[in-house]
Amino acid sequence: MVSAQYPGGVIDLRLHRPQARLALVEQTLMALRPGEDVLLVFPAPPDRLPGYIQRTYPDRFELTPVEEGPEFWSLRVHPLAH
Q1: In this structure, is residue 63 part of a structural domain?
Q2: Which range of residues forms the domain containing residue 6?
Q3: Confidence at residue 7, expressed as pLDDT on a 0 to 100 scale
Q4: Which phi and psi angles does 50 have, rounded to 5°?
Q5: 31 falls within a domain
Q6: Given this model, what pLDDT does residue 82 score?
Q7: Quick check: 36 and 11 in contact, CB under 8 A?
């Protein structure tokens, strides 16, 4: 995980309570601008989050899995220009 590849930062959700994670993700998404990719790091597979993001923010973000376990999972979020 090299943060220079993610100008929007690296958000390690393993460090936050499960109840706070979705709010943190939403705050992060709303602050991103085109070109400010962010890496979200999870303690388990983010099975439902990609669908939630696509439904809630249609055509605003490209999501790409980066790491897929077993110690952690990560997802690159790339904001699309509008």
Answers
A1: no
A2: 1-36
A3: 85
A4: -55, -45
A5: yes
A6: 67
A7: no
